[in-house]
Write a structure and sequence with these properties.
The protein is an alpha/beta fold and about 220 residues long. Helix content is about 30%, strand content about 25%. The chain has six helices and twelve strands. It has helices at about 1-25, 45-50, 65-70, 145-155, 160-165, 195-205, and strands at about 35, 75-85, 90-95, 100-105, 115, 120-125, 135-140, 165-170, 175-180, 185-190, 210-215, 220-224. It is elongated, with a radius of gyration of 27 Å.
Protein backbone atom coordinates (compact mmCIF):
# COMPACT_ATOMS: atom_id res chain seq x y z
CA UNK A 1 0.00 0.00 0.00
CA UNK A 2 2.79 2.36 0.97
CA UNK A 3 4.62 1.54 -2.25
CA UNK A 4 1.49 2.26 -4.23
CA UNK A 5 0.99 5.60 -2.53
CA UNK A 6 4.62 6.49 -3.13
CA UNK A 7 4.22 5.56 -6.77
CA UNK A 8 1.15 7.77 -7.10
CA UNK A 9 2.97 10.66 -5.47
CA UNK A 10 5.89 10.26 -7.83
CA UNK A 11 3.53 9.94 -10.79
CA UNK A 12 1.64 13.09 -9.77
CA UNK A 13 4.86 14.98 -9.24
CA UNK A 14 6.07 13.86 -12.62
CA UNK A 15 2.88 15.00 -14.34
CA UNK A 16 2.96 18.36 -12.55
CA UNK A 17 6.64 18.78 -13.28
CA UNK A 18 6.10 18.01 -16.94
CA UNK A 19 3.20 20.48 -17.12
CA UNK A 20 5.28 23.18 -15.46
CA UNK A 21 8.14 22.55 -17.86
CA UNK A 22 5.82 22.63 -20.89
CA UNK A 23 4.15 25.88 -19.83
CA UNK A 24 6.99 27.89 -18.33
CA UNK A 25 10.22 26.63 -19.84
CA UNK A 26 9.75 24.74 -23.09
CA UNK A 27 9.12 26.20 -26.57
CA UNK A 28 6.11 23.91 -27.02
CA UNK A 29 3.80 26.66 -25.74
CA UNK A 30 6.10 29.43 -26.88
CA UNK A 31 5.28 32.57 -28.87
CA UNK A 32 4.79 31.48 -32.46
CA UNK A 33 3.02 34.60 -33.74
CA UNK A 34 2.46 38.21 -32.70
CA UNK A 35 -0.90 39.67 -33.70
CA UNK A 36 -0.85 43.46 -34.10
CA UNK A 37 -4.28 45.15 -34.02
CA UNK A 38 -5.28 48.81 -34.41
CA UNK A 39 -2.25 50.18 -36.22
CA UNK A 40 -2.90 52.32 -39.30
CA UNK A 41 0.25 54.33 -40.00
CA UNK A 42 2.77 52.55 -37.77
CA UNK A 43 4.06 49.37 -39.47
CA UNK A 44 3.35 46.12 -37.62
CA UNK A 45 7.00 45.14 -38.07
CA UNK A 46 8.09 48.19 -36.10
CA UNK A 47 5.71 47.41 -33.24
CA UNK A 48 6.83 43.79 -33.17
CA UNK A 49 10.48 44.85 -33.15
CA UNK A 50 9.89 47.27 -30.27
CA UNK A 51 7.98 44.60 -28.32
CA UNK A 52 11.20 42.59 -28.22
CA UNK A 53 9.64 39.15 -27.69
CA UNK A 54 11.66 36.40 -29.43
CA UNK A 55 10.05 33.52 -31.27
CA UNK A 56 9.27 30.48 -29.08
CA UNK A 57 9.76 32.42 -25.84
CA UNK A 58 7.38 30.71 -23.34
CA UNK A 59 4.09 32.57 -23.66
CA UNK A 60 3.33 32.19 -19.95
CA UNK A 61 6.46 34.08 -18.90
CA UNK A 62 6.07 37.09 -21.20
CA UNK A 63 5.93 40.22 -19.02
CA UNK A 64 2.87 41.90 -20.55
CA UNK A 65 3.36 45.24 -18.76
CA UNK A 66 6.99 45.36 -19.86
CA UNK A 67 6.00 44.74 -23.48
CA UNK A 68 3.41 47.53 -23.28
CA UNK A 69 6.04 49.92 -21.93
CA UNK A 70 8.46 49.09 -24.73
CA UNK A 71 5.81 49.42 -27.44
CA UNK A 72 4.76 52.84 -26.12
CA UNK A 73 8.25 54.15 -26.83
CA UNK A 74 6.83 54.64 -30.31
CA UNK A 75 5.59 58.21 -29.99
CA UNK A 76 2.83 57.73 -32.58
CA UNK A 77 1.03 55.38 -30.18
CA UNK A 78 -1.32 56.64 -27.48
CA UNK A 79 -1.97 53.27 -25.81
CA UNK A 80 -1.09 49.59 -26.04
CA UNK A 81 -2.72 46.50 -24.52
CA UNK A 82 -0.96 43.13 -24.60
CA UNK A 83 -2.68 39.77 -24.05
CA UNK A 84 -1.86 36.08 -24.31
CA UNK A 85 -3.91 34.03 -26.76
CA UNK A 86 -3.22 30.36 -26.20
CA UNK A 87 -1.58 28.26 -27.36
CA UNK A 88 1.06 30.49 -28.98
CA UNK A 89 -0.05 34.00 -29.91
CA UNK A 90 0.81 37.34 -28.32
CA UNK A 91 -1.83 39.95 -29.16
CA UNK A 92 -0.84 43.63 -29.12
CA UNK A 93 -3.73 46.07 -29.53
CA UNK A 94 -2.70 49.69 -30.08
CA UNK A 95 -4.37 53.06 -30.49
CA UNK A 96 -2.50 55.59 -32.58
CA UNK A 97 -2.26 59.26 -31.72
CA UNK A 98 -4.25 61.44 -34.10
CA UNK A 99 -2.77 64.82 -35.10
CA UNK A 100 -5.18 67.71 -34.57
CA UNK A 101 -2.87 70.67 -35.30
CA UNK A 102 0.57 71.56 -36.60
CA UNK A 103 3.33 73.79 -35.31
CA UNK A 104 6.18 75.38 -37.25
CA UNK A 105 9.36 74.64 -35.32
CA UNK A 106 11.55 76.67 -37.68
CA UNK A 107 12.27 79.20 -34.94
CA UNK A 108 14.29 76.50 -33.19
CA UNK A 109 16.41 76.01 -36.29
CA UNK A 110 14.99 72.67 -37.36
CA UNK A 111 12.78 73.97 -40.14
CA UNK A 112 10.29 71.20 -39.40
CA UNK A 113 6.53 71.09 -39.02
CA UNK A 114 5.48 69.24 -35.87
CA UNK A 115 2.16 67.42 -35.98
CA UNK A 116 0.68 67.30 -32.47
CA UNK A 117 -2.24 65.48 -30.94
CA UNK A 118 -4.91 66.67 -28.48
CA UNK A 119 -2.55 66.08 -25.54
CA UNK A 120 0.21 68.25 -27.01
CA UNK A 121 2.40 65.28 -27.92
CA UNK A 122 4.46 65.56 -31.11
CA UNK A 123 3.28 62.69 -33.30
CA UNK A 124 5.46 63.31 -36.32
CA UNK A 125 7.83 65.84 -37.90
CA UNK A 126 7.23 66.87 -41.49
CA UNK A 127 9.20 69.03 -43.90
CA UNK A 128 6.03 70.71 -45.25
CA UNK A 129 2.70 71.72 -43.77
CA UNK A 130 -0.07 69.14 -43.59
CA UNK A 131 -3.29 70.08 -45.45
CA UNK A 132 -6.41 70.07 -43.31
CA UNK A 133 -4.73 70.77 -39.96
CA UNK A 134 -4.77 74.26 -38.37
CA UNK A 135 -1.43 75.94 -37.69
CA UNK A 136 -0.71 76.88 -34.08
CA UNK A 137 0.97 80.15 -33.09
CA UNK A 138 2.09 79.97 -29.46
CA UNK A 139 4.61 81.73 -27.22
CA UNK A 140 5.73 78.60 -25.34
CA UNK A 141 4.41 75.53 -27.14
CA UNK A 142 4.41 72.31 -25.18
CA UNK A 143 2.25 69.74 -23.43
CA UNK A 144 2.76 71.52 -20.09
CA UNK A 145 1.87 74.98 -21.39
CA UNK A 146 -1.67 76.12 -20.38
CA UNK A 147 -2.08 78.25 -23.52
CA UNK A 148 -1.11 75.30 -25.72
CA UNK A 149 -3.62 73.03 -24.01
CA UNK A 150 -6.36 75.67 -24.24
CA UNK A 151 -5.77 76.07 -27.98
CA UNK A 152 -5.90 72.30 -28.51
CA UNK A 153 -9.10 72.05 -26.47
CA UNK A 154 -10.68 74.76 -28.61
CA UNK A 155 -9.71 72.91 -31.79
CA UNK A 156 -11.27 69.73 -30.40
CA UNK A 157 -14.52 71.57 -29.62
CA UNK A 158 -15.04 72.80 -33.19
CA UNK A 159 -17.63 70.95 -35.29
CA UNK A 160 -16.26 69.53 -38.54
CA UNK A 161 -17.80 72.17 -40.83
CA UNK A 162 -16.38 75.02 -38.74
CA UNK A 163 -13.01 73.34 -38.20
CA UNK A 164 -12.59 73.08 -41.97
CA UNK A 165 -12.67 76.90 -42.17
CA UNK A 166 -9.93 77.46 -39.56
CA UNK A 167 -6.44 78.11 -40.96
CA UNK A 168 -4.60 79.28 -37.85
CA UNK A 169 -5.08 79.30 -34.07
CA UNK A 170 -3.25 81.79 -31.83
CA UNK A 171 -3.01 81.59 -28.05
CA UNK A 172 -0.91 83.96 -25.97
CA UNK A 173 -2.73 82.94 -22.76
CA UNK A 174 -5.31 80.26 -21.88
CA UNK A 175 -8.01 82.93 -22.09
CA UNK A 176 -6.67 84.56 -25.25
CA UNK A 177 -7.39 82.08 -28.04
CA UNK A 178 -8.15 83.55 -31.47
CA UNK A 179 -8.93 81.85 -34.77
CA UNK A 180 -7.98 82.94 -38.25
CA UNK A 181 -10.22 81.62 -40.98
CA UNK A 182 -9.09 80.65 -44.45
CA UNK A 183 -10.85 83.67 -45.96
CA UNK A 184 -8.95 86.10 -43.69
CA UNK A 185 -11.65 86.75 -41.11
CA UNK A 186 -10.72 86.55 -37.41
CA UNK A 187 -12.54 85.12 -34.40
CA UNK A 188 -11.87 86.19 -30.81
CA UNK A 189 -12.65 82.93 -29.02
CA UNK A 190 -11.35 83.64 -25.54
CA UNK A 191 -10.97 80.65 -23.22
CA UNK A 192 -11.77 77.02 -23.93
CA UNK A 193 -14.97 77.13 -21.86
CA UNK A 194 -18.47 76.98 -23.40
CA UNK A 195 -17.08 75.68 -26.67
CA UNK A 196 -20.38 74.26 -27.88
CA UNK A 197 -22.20 77.58 -27.34
CA UNK A 198 -19.44 79.58 -29.03
CA UNK A 199 -19.34 77.25 -32.04
CA UNK A 200 -23.11 77.39 -32.50
CA UNK A 201 -23.19 81.20 -32.26
CA UNK A 202 -20.19 81.64 -34.55
CA UNK A 203 -21.67 79.38 -37.22
CA UNK A 204 -24.71 81.66 -37.31
CA UNK A 205 -22.67 84.88 -37.19
CA UNK A 206 -20.47 83.93 -40.13
CA UNK A 207 -23.45 84.51 -42.40
CA UNK A 208 -23.09 88.21 -41.59
CA UNK A 209 -20.33 90.29 -43.17
CA UNK A 210 -17.56 91.33 -40.77
CA UNK A 211 -13.80 91.09 -40.35
CA UNK A 212 -13.71 90.20 -36.64
CA UNK A 213 -16.20 88.09 -34.68
CA UNK A 214 -15.92 88.19 -30.89
CA UNK A 215 -17.61 85.21 -29.21
CA UNK A 216 -15.37 85.19 -26.10
CA UNK A 217 -18.50 85.96 -24.08
CA UNK A 218 -21.31 84.01 -25.82
CA UNK A 219 -23.97 86.07 -24.06
CA UNK A 220 -22.64 89.34 -25.54
CA UNK A 221 -21.08 88.92 -28.99
CA UNK A 222 -19.68 91.69 -31.18
CA UNK A 223 -18.77 92.10 -34.83
CA UNK A 224 -16.34 94.56 -36.37
Amino acid sequence: MKARNAFLVLLTAGVVGTAVWLIFFSPVLGVRSIDIVGNVTVPAERIQREAGVPQLHPLATVDLADVETRVLRIRQLASAKVDRVWPGTLKIEVVEREPVAQLDTGAAGSGKIALIDKEGVVVELKSVTQPGLPILKLDRPGAGDPATMAALKVIQSLPADLAAKVRLVRASTPEGVTLELADGRSVVWGGADRGEDKARILTSLLRRKASVYDVSSPDVVTLK
